Each structure stands twice: as C-alpha cells, then as structure tokens.
Amino acid sequence: MPPQPPESQVRKDILKFLKSCLGIIRILQIVFGAGLWVTIAANKYEGPIHFVLFVAVLFWLLTLALFFLTLLDKQDLVPLLGGERWLCTNLAHDVAATLLYLPAIGVMIYKTDRNSYCNLEQYKHFCLYKVYLTAAVFACLCCLSYLLSVIYGASRRCRGEQTVI
C-alpha cells in the first residue's frame, strides 16, 4: 500500500478542487439536479415527465460520483475511465447530460404550457403549473451548468491538459 499524504495536504487538495472552476460547476450541477428531481418527485407526475425524472436522477447520481471521485483524488481507481482518460470521461458525461437535458427542457416547457390555463386566481382546483414551471427553470439551469462544463472541459482538452483540476 502506497504511503498516504499528510492530512493537511489532503485538506489543501480538497479545498483546491472546491475552489476550482470545475468544482464550483459540479456543485451547481448537483444542487440544480436535486432541485429538479425533488420538485418533480414531490408532486404528481405522469407521461413524459418520467423521462425528465430519469434524466435528472441519472445525471445527479453520475455527477455525485464524478464529484466525489475527483474531490478525493481517486479517479485512478476507475477501470478504463480513470487516470489519463479522466478528463475525456468528464467531457463525455457532460456532453451526454447536455444533450439529454435539452429534450427534458422541451418536455417541461410543453407540460407547463399545457397547464397554463389553471394559473388564474379564480381557478380553485389543484394545478401543477407552478411545479412544472419550477422544474423547467431547474432543467434549464442544469443544462446550462453542464454546457459550461463542456466548454470548460473542451478548452482544457484542446490545450492538451490531462488533469481535471
């Protein structure tokens, strides 16, 4: 077993990642993704909303995994995807997330528009308009944060960098 770095060095590495551009973007992705799936899951949903929930939960979990592996500097332990391929792995994850969040945004906008009739003060029945609107905003914020991560990762890859931080 290789010697472990001193605790103060580990703490410095963790703080370095949390203050980095990618660390901040990952935290935003986790927060916005959680906001999206909690908003949907806390209310009644049906039909195409299942796809949105699938995308939100899938990429929330994958982003958590990438975040903690990078935070703890354990990406070398991931077979086939770690080590020198870690930046490409992150980039592929972010591209896939961006591409799948786009139809999720479309679904949420469609459902919001379909329920816009019940946004009137005189309407007394239960209405999901505000829920769908909130979810649409979270989906847009998620997509934007993943797009920022794609741009950041691609610029680092074009410069020939191999590390994520």
Automatic annotation (TrEMBL):
List the molecular function annotations (GO) for this entry.
Answer: structural constituent of myelin sheath
Q: Which PROSITE patterns match?
A: MARVEL (PS51225)
UniProt domain MARVEL: residue ranges? 17-158
Q: Where are the transmembrane segments?
A: 21-42, 48-71, 91-111, 131-152
Topological category with respect to the lipid bilayer: Multi-pass membrane protein
Which key words tag this protein in UniProt?
Membrane, Transmembrane, Transmembrane helix
Q: Which GO biological process entries does UniProt record here?
A: myelination
What Gene Ontology cellular-component terms does the record carry? membrane
Coiled-coil regions listed in the entry: none
Tagged with keyword Transmembrane? yes
> Which top-rank group of organisms is this from?
Eukaryota
Key word ATP-binding present: no
Compartments annotated for it: namely: Membrane
Q: What is the protein name given in its UniProt record?
A: MARVEL domain containing 1
Q: Which organism is it from?
A: Seriola lalandi dorsalis
